[in-house]
Structures are given as C-alpha cells and as structure tokens.
Description:
The structure holds two protein chains of two kinds. Chain A is mostly helical. Chain A has four helices and one strand. Chain A has a domain of about 80 residues. Helices cover about 50% and strands about 5% of the residues of chain A. Chain B folds into two domains: about 250 residues, Alpha-Beta Complex (Naphthalene 1,2-dioxygenase Alpha Subunit, Chain A, domain 1), CATH 3.90.380; about 120 residues, Rieske Iron-sulfur Protein. Chain B has a seven-stranded antiparallel β-sheet. In chain B, strands 12-18-17-16-15-14-13 form a seven-stranded antiparallel β-sheet. Chain B has a three-stranded antiparallel β-sheet with strand order 7-8-9, with no helix packed on it.
Amino acid sequence: MPTVLPAAFAELEPFADWAIPTERARYAKRVSSTMDELQAFYDAAFPRIDDALAYLEQFPIDGIPEDATRLLWLYCALMTASFPVESWRQPRVPDSGAASFDAVLEPAV
Amino acid sequence: MPHFTKPAEGSWTEHYPELGTGLVSYADSVSPEVYEREREAIFARTWLNVGRIEQLPKVGSYFTRELDAARTSVVVVRASQDEVRAFHNICRHRGNKLVWQDFPHEETSGTCRQFTCKYHGWRYNLEGECTFVQQESEFFDLDRQDFGLASVQAEVWEGFIFVNLDPRNTTPLRDYLGKFAKGIEGYPFHELTQVHRYRAEVGSNWKLFIDAFTEFYHAPILHAKQSVAEESRRLTDIGYEALAYEIDGPHGMVSTWTGGAPPKDLSLVKPIERKVRSGLFGPWDEPDLGLDELPPALNPTGSKLWGLDSFLFFPNFMVLIWKQNWVITYHYWPTSYNTHIFEGTCYFAPPKNGRDRLAQELAVVTFKEYALQDGNTLEATQTMLESRTPIRTFPLNDQEILLRHLHTTAQRFVDEHERAPAPAPARV
C-alpha cells in the first residue's frame, strides 16, 4: 500500500483512513466506529501531536503539500475523535439522540 | 451576594419593569395559530439577515434564500453598480421559481449576467428588469417594462445583508438594529473570511432555541461533562452569572466571562485543548485584527474577565463576538410552529498555517458538540410543552431575562400588528 503521510509520521499509516477531507465525513466515521477503534486511533495519534503541530506550522495553508494536507486532515479527525475518548466514553454525544448538526460549508483545506 | 454588580433596582429584570417578574406562559410556542400570527406580524415585516457580503464577491454573484416563515424565496444579487438587490424568486410569466438547481426547495448560489427562467426562457437583468420574452409577439399588449421582478428591500450593515419583505416598511436597517449595531460598527467582520457553517433541523419552536442560547444558566449543568471533573464540580457550585445584560427595543445582549483562553490553570481543560491551545472559547493565540480598541458596545462593563458578547437582533439573528477575535452567528428559520432550521456559522481570520487551522477546527467541533446537546434538549422541551400536562406557566430567573424579553417582544409585535393592521399590499 502506498504511503500517504509525511515520512516522519510513517507509524500513523495504519490510521491513514482517518485522513478525511471534510468534517461531515470525519464525524460520520467517528459515530460508526467502536470505542476500541477510537481509542486505538487516539492512542496512536495523540502522542505525536506536538510533532504534528510543529510540522504543520511550517506550511502556509495556500500551497500546503499533499502529504501535509493529509496529516492535517488526520489531526482534524483526532479533534473529532477526542470527544468520545476524553469526555463521553461513547462515540456519540450523550443524550444527543436523533439530533444532527451537519457542516454545510467548510474551508477547502 | 452577586459576583457582578446588578442595577440599582436589585436585578437585571426589574431594571426593565415592563418585563415583570411573574411566571411566563409558553403557549406562544405550542400553537399553529400563534405561529401563523407571528409569520404575519414578525417575519413578513422585520429586517431579516440573509447572508454576508462575501457571498457576493462580484457583479452578477447571487444566492437564494428560502424564507418559509415569510412565505417566500428571495434571490439576492450584486447588481451592475455593485449594489445589493433582492427580488422575490418568481418569474413574472406564470409563477415558476426563477432561480434554483435540481431541487426547487434547496438554496443555491452562483454568478450570472442575467436570470433566465427554466420554463419559457424569460430573462431579467441584474436590476430585475425583464429583458426578453420568448415569442413576445404572441402576447397581447405586453409591455416588458411592466413585468420586472418584484423587488424586496435590501440593505447591508457591516457586511451583513438584510431583507425586509414588507413593501411598506419605512424604517432603515440601521435604525431598526438600534444602539447595539451602532456600538459594534467598526468591528473587522470583513477580516473573518474563514467560514464554517452548520445546519440542523430542530424539532422545536424557533423561540426555544433562542432561549437556549440567550441564557448561560444551563451551561454548568447540561454541558458538565465537557469539562474535566474537578472544573465541572467547581462550575456547578458557583453557578452562572453574566457580567451584564442590556435591552434595546426588541433587541437584547448579554456580556459574559468565560473559562479563559487559555484558562488560568491548564489542568482544568482536556488534554487535546492543552496541546492544540484552543477550545469552546476559540483559539488561545488570537490573530491580530488591528483592533486597537474594542467598539463601544463590546465588553460594556470593561471587565478584565470579559470573554464574549452575544447580541440578539430580533427576531432571529444572533451575533457572538469573542475576545479571541472570532465570531459566531446563529439564525433560526421557522418551518412550522414546532420545527425550525438552525444555522450556526463560525468566522475566523484565515489561518496562517496548518497549526492555526487545527486550532480553529477544535473550536468548531467543540461548538458542534455543545450544539448537539442543546438541540436534543429542545426536542425534549417541545414535546412536554405540547403535552396535556396541567403545567402551563414557568418561572424564569434573572439570568433568563433575555428569554422573558424575547417572548414578550414577539407577543408585542403580534398585538401591535393586529391592533393596527396595515392595508393589504397593493397588487403589482
């Protein structure tokens, strides 16, 4: 399988399916994941977050390389996945039942 | 003993004696009949915010807005002299919706040199004048000049585009928006072009969601688990008090402190917030917007603890201006007495790099987590308000003054409209 992330983040390649371009799709993946899957993603990505932030700080958003863009999306997904892991202990917001709140306009990157 | 000084009358609510302090009926939120009266008295007559000027970047840029509460769809366009114009979105030939794509009820946007009806090809320029009629000679004494689009009053305040569907309206937008708007003017909204917009169909009366977002009394309880445990207990013990409330005609505002961005004690926030330096109150490292001094309506008490001012421009437009140099707007678009579409839009300065972008993302998704909790609570409230329980009136506390004001104001608009009904609109 080809690598999609910057070389320095090779250990996160098994979680490359979280490098999703839109919040709407990242949230959909979160709520269709199990807590074990969310915890595994968090446990892999969170320890590298300082490195990722330093890496991403190098690039202006206009002209950010493709592999860095995927790293950005993967860490955007970590923002989304952090709530079940750090707060809820379940994929959905508690008591949010049938409520939905969908992104209809997002930045391109 | 209040933590923050209240008016001499002893409470924010009693500072506005017309509000009273009695129990409040929610009969205005459970009745199709009341909703129909609100449509006529409020949504068909007041200035409604339908978008931002950045959505119309050049001459010919347009967007449509479905305004079910006012029983119409409008098309808003930047016309030839760079002015913003709005029209009822209807072809003058036989009433087809003029501008739409694929699904007639969905909003759309784009750029064009003229509007062409999909049905029989009638054309209108950006000023709404009818410029072409297919097989014109088949018609009887038809003068194209008489068949321009029906225009709607449109005005722009600080880049926010408003329409007023009442052709007899004589109140300029800026006068309608009143002292809060004048006091916000000069805020660099135009710098905040990085936009995230969310939309939800909510199973409650439109006023109930405004209720939820004009009081923070609920925050330490409903959102308790969004904080780490120790901080959550502390917030619950303290409860919530705003820095200040103010009312201006139909509009209201609350000025508040926040948990800090960054908080005084980093152990009080979640690990992801500590790392990314962001959270509900926005990115901790705020962008420089060149704002040497806040406009006078912001942080009106001059508090060092200030974090956010939230303005409700009646009926359905809220602007939240954060200390961290970003903005949220809320819109509540009724679709029936017990349903509405909620839109929440976050505006940031364009991120300088990927790190900035991530900090903005955390603020946005945190906002989403909170909104999901708020939205579902509303359906629970609506269901019980509509039930046959004998409970009809409810106590509102001093931190809920803006709710009392909203329901009172909506009722006042209905009463005044029905006492002195305007004449039926003249036929075009």
